[in-house]
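Lecture notes, unit on protein representations.

Consider one protein chain, 69 amino acids long.
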Amino acid sequence: MSPDAASASGSEEGVGEPDGAHRRGRAALKTDARSAVPDVCAALGVTATVFLFLFARMRSGESPITRWS
């Protein structure tokens, strides 16, 4: 393997990514995080809804689990 090919592939020890690649990786991470926000909000909304439904059911006494008769 020629030295140029080795440095281009980054396979030699001590050869790191150029600054541009690091910045692109950081930008991609920000983009991925922003695109995950709607999914996270939907998951939290569903979880909160189920929790509140079960909590209200428990407090009202409708749940057979909470009856100790």
